[in-house]
Amino acid sequence: MMVNLKKSLFSVLFFVSMLFVLPNVVAQTTTKAISGIVVDTKGEPLIGVSVLLKGTNTGTITNVDGKFTLQLGAVTAPTLVVSYIGYVKQEITPNVFSNFKITLEESSKDLSEVVVVGYGTQKRASVVGAITSVTPALLQVGTTPNISNNLAGQLAGVIGVQRSGEPGYDASDIWIRGISTFAGSTSPLVLVDGIERSLNDLDAAEIESFSILKDAAASAVYGVRGANGVILVNTKRGFVGKPKIEIRTEQSVQQPTQLPSFIGAAEYMTLLNELANNAGYTKPFSNDRIVKTFNKYDPDLYPNINWIDAITKSYASNTRTNLNVAGGSDILRYSLTASYYGENGIIARDPAQTYSSESRMHRYNIRSNVDINLSKTTLLRVNIGGYLQELQKGLNSTDDLFSAAFETPPYVHPTVYSDGTFPIVAQRTNPWAYSTQTGYYRKGESKIESLFSLEQDLKMITPGLKAKFTFSFDSYSANYVNRGKSPNYYNVATGRDVEGNLIHSIYSYGQEYLGLSTNADWGNRGTYLEGNLYYNRTFGKHDIDAMLLYNQNSYDNGGIQPYRHQGVAGRLSYIYDTRYVGEFNFGYNGSENFAKGQRFGLFPSVALGWLLSEEKFMQPYKKIFNKIKFRGSYGFVGNDNIGSNRRFAYLTTLNTNVVGYTWGTGNGSYYSGIQEGEIGVNNLTWEKVAKANVGIELGILGMVDLQVDAFNEDRKDIFIQRTTVPTQAGFLSTPYANYGKMNNKGFEVALSMNKQITKTLFMNWRANFTYAKNTVLEKDEAAAVLGTYRSATGLPNNTLWGYTADRLYTSADFDGSGNLVSGQAIPQIGGTPVRPGDIKYIDKNKDGIINSLDEGYIGGTLDPQIVYGFGNTTKYKQFDLSFFFQGVANTYQIIGQGSGSSFFIPGSGQGVLGNIYSNYNDRWTEENPSQNVFWPRLDYGTNYNNSAPSTWWKKDRSFLRLKTLELGYSLKKSLIEKAKLSGVRIYLSGNNLFYLSSFNLWDPELATSTGLKYPSMKSVLFGIQVSL
Amino acid sequence: MKKSNIRIAFLLFTLMLLSSCADFLDKEADTEITLESVFQNKTKTQQWLAGCYSMIPDPYWGYMRDLGWEILGDDMSPSERWRNYGWQVIPFALGEWTIDSDWSPSYWSVLPQKIRECNIFMQLVQALPDQKLSQEEVALMVGEARFLRAYYYSLLLNTYGPIPFKPDYITPVNYNLSDLMVGQTPYDDIVNWIDTELTEVAKILPATYSDGGKYGRATSIMCEAVRARMLLFAASPLVNGNPDYVAHTNKEGKELFNTTYDASKWTKAATASKKLIDDAEAAGHALYTELNDDGSIDPFLSCENLFLKEYSKGNTEILFARPSCDYSTYDKHSAPYGSSGNGGYGVTQSLVDAFFMANGLPKDDPNSGYSETGFSTSDGYFTTGKTKWKECKNVGQVTLAGTYKMYCNREPRFYLAVNFNGQWYNKDSRTLNFYYNGKDNPGTHDAPQNGYLSRKRTDPSRDPINNVFAWRPGILYRLGEVYLNYIEALNEIDPGNPDILLYLNKIRNRAGVREYSTGVTSTTVIHADLGDQTAMRELIRAERRVELCTEGIRYDDLRRWKQAESVLNQNFYGMNFYGTNQTNFFTRTQYQTRVYKKAFYWFPVHLSEIEKNPNLVQAPFWE
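Above: the input entities. Below: the structure tokens describing the complete assembly.
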């Protein structure tokens, strides 16, 4: 296989190099002819235009300069039929016979508009793959530094959720058409200017075009890396014209969308007394204490602290400024983009400290793209971009801060005593001191991205042929520093002495100065090399577009070896008479991660399209249906990021430095162990996916655009650990194999409507909807499991697991002595005997006992199956108003699980640990034995029966969010022209202003089952944009 | 720039491209360590062997929390709510144990990994003369690997009973899945294999190593110790003619337990123990004792330091120890809360009750002098012997005035094993305060749940605040146990054999309690009816209970004797956790209901394994 590749590579390259040394082809000239030039409306020559002498078979096509010469023979008053794909066909009777100029008009915007596709561009009409583009302006909204946060709901086919609002950690998880593997990476391949780069390192202002490639037709050229879809981003380039300068600056204030709300100290103690009393224990809090706390008698001794409020500020802020300068001449064009983004988070700081423990982030992006025409046919492009980012925050993770704030009850001690000392309970944390008094963490990152490309027009060999060579290198580096300290902590005060001073003793002595621990710089480097040939030419009704390339990349992150890929890819697209489109794509590429001889794979795809609206018989309806296009594709793509965090998984590994043994008298000598690690996988390969897509594009009345796509993806060879190998085999780690299978199917709809209603009123509506449902088809489950409620096969990936709650027990379920009446299954979950008001589960295996064997898959996944968005932009005179809603549905979570959740249910921390959600009264009590409550019976201490994961705690996470609401005002031209400005717009914008959800304890989008997480933010933003 | 220049530049680039693409992906992970290279290097060979040793259990934190042998028995009372911190075995003790319960040591899956490593070692280890690894050394190392393999099988057998058994099989990496679907082999077949194998290996390995650096490596004594304990178990009622297991067969229809009683199993057990005693004593092993100036045994120091002193410093009672283990966490959990311990690892009331009185009589004996009412009016001292032990205010003092009478006048081993409310805590020169909201009882899970803390095997001078804990070996097998194993088996086949009293009295003598005699009871001896097999069985078991308490052995004893289903299936008692004064604290209070089902005698085959291997059968009574 390798030999073949080398051979084919060699021939390609040889061909490319020969092209440059061939002499120019000289055009022929004759007499008795008509000669001329065909240009487009901009005056650019058109190559390959068909020029036919009407009524004869004589014809020719224009050359690389757009020129043609046609022998007229006997014809004296010729009529020329001039046709070119994407342009309106013309019949002309020329009046001059030399240098006759014909101007062709584009037949419609749709047919001439160019779409960024894999390794190039295509005219929109000829696109038959599933590709969605978005106007970059739609990504440049809101206060987020991460482009990924603006994708969900904007692009049909993108499923995205933002799981945190913490500066520096708030990027969204995004999947193209959902998740279609349960082991390997699910992230799309992101290419910025053709180079694999992170989406979130870009500032939105740098983007010129943004496309996602969804089906096999669009992504097969990426071969072994294209299975999860591809995101193509091109950065802004210059143009011929006067320098255009644009400055945009925004300032915003932010607030959490919703933090969980907890009850105050007096209410807390009252409830705990009630619960202890119900359980037959002495009440832990005296009435005197409760009253004094309620009356704020002495806040040092009877404190009432809302710890979430204590560790957060009311407002956060951010600022963003973009500068873009672009312009150029025929010889040189340039674009320079510089951006600054700054963000202050919500975590509080102690003004008395010299340092800040707030979360703060700064980022500077700069990018300069220059295009130089070295000759009439040679174009050199140089892109240099990069960023510098600094993140500072408190030393402890915000997750830990929120956990500590939740863990500490409101009554235990104040944040700080009035005498300036920090109280603490032994073996616990003082959340405020933990947040503000322990130092800070700073992380610096920088990246430089470069690209150099040389494009040679080879029209001298044959018109329409181009060659391009690209080289790029990227380098990323990062470092961090921990500046830690700790305060002196005091035991909780027991009272006041006669002078009124607090009586408290020292608990632990801290370290008052900031410590220092740093790490060495780390980083990664990547290089990329690509050579390609393009061919695009029209012969009469035939339009051919072809591409062939070789590429290789290397990515070194300091691991045992760099990651490398190598391959060739090609595309052949044929359009007949602007009506029928056929396309063939392939990628043939390999990765060093597989065994020799098994490194390369071929990934072909075919696609067909039919522009019904271009058919003759449809012309009468053209006014109504300006576009009707059907397209379909089928093909194969791969995913070499197979997961399990293994390099060279075909090799058996050894684990060194594992647990060993000590020999020798006394303390002895410790020998670390060596053992067999992972078993090498035979015939290791990548995930393979067969993707099918059908789509229809409708243009109605020139104003409505509708696209509907349906897709089906079958993925196999998913790299999973076998689960049917008995542990008796003695393997340290059960062997892996390319064994898993998964299906993913769904549909997506994109609708937009543009209407200039009156001269001064313009309206745009847009909406899109994505539905993707995956199904695990093969997970290597044992035959005994398949088909039972404990089997994941046939269910969506990551289906929730737990008990199925039937209802709450009622007093009728118990006999006089408090035992369950006979016939009831006996719950044995955690040993606590059940009482009325506890959750009753279904005895799934019908063994009369409810225990973990009755747990099973209960349906629903956290990853949403539906993402949608809709919005409107209205422009009236100088004003513009827009809004955009975004939502997700079919997303569920079992709340109250995971770390820090053992005191989720009010009372389960026995008043020693945990806060109590303010909706605690929505509960079962003997006085209110309702089934329709949020909380079951509250217990004093952990009630394992009630806290078990079950359908009771399974909550719908769907929401609909007002993502943006923006009002803008553009100053009148007459006003600003004096200042030599070409445009000034001021705007006010709100982001995430509200959301609708059936779940109301905390923002349902957050990745938390307790609400204890750095919250998502809503913001109000003021901006001004000035163009020169 | 001229066109020709550009073309040349292009050409150069393409050439560059050509040159770089050749073998671009041809990067094998070339310098990775391979299996073969391990055995071409002496140090790595030793490291592989060290890995094979690594699953020898830790009798401190391991027996206590992960394996849970201590807390499954009726010796210990760990704080129930420690289950929230990953103590998986605590729910088991309360009857919450199913075939899909997780158990982190997971012997069923982990020990076969070690057995595979041992087998690979035996297959690949080779002499490396240039690195001074001789053929003789290799032969010894192979013996060690064989010992470990047999030992791990004995642990599997002890945990699960019949197991899939293919001792010499090394699963190839290109395995055939159906070859791996192995069913269980009958219990006795595995016992016989281990018996034979360990007998063989004992002939290869030395009894001791003169090189101190090799201490802890397998010896012939270790082989015999493992073998003898296993044979005692195999002779016991649970697996020797247990009618409960009739018709418990594997998928081939073979009965997995022999359900016909076979007395010769006791003979085998007795012979093995006796041979071990003889061989061990010949190799210099003896009961550990510390003597007073007059040559008499100091029972306190002997019984306390037995667990704190190492073999090379004269503690030759140790037959098999893990040189390194996590005793500090063990110490922390049993140290009182008021002294920065976690203070929730206690002993049961039934263990407190099991200790003899200072006069050597059990508390229920009418002449014991035991009382459960009132409090002592004067300090108590050890009077039936001599000691230099000073863990109370004065040398030889055991109780302070005002001590609950239940704890007064008990035998030395009681004071070495139990921390009770009102006891002197010498480390901090204070008395222990277990009253609710007292210094050592914060009312949480880090408090003595039934009024006791465990003391045996801990370091009395431990300092949890500064993380100071005295080093000590992890004793897995000791000679004292072998004496008791021997006489228990002997009493079953040869009642009246004088060895029974001989070895029983060695234990009692060291512990400072009156010995038994066939003669009449006097100030120095207690009468025992040697010929009465049943009575002697009770005496032996009673001695075992206190001598071997909190060493992780009791649980296996209850299983062997088929007593677990009664002893471990009842309400457990202690002092009143919520008591705040003498009157309401010192009263027998139920704090826990323990549940033990017939199924629990053997760990279940985990649901996931049963499901994937159709040739497996579940352990008895689990389904």
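Note for the figure: The CA atoms of residues 357 and 410 of chain B lie 4 Å apart.
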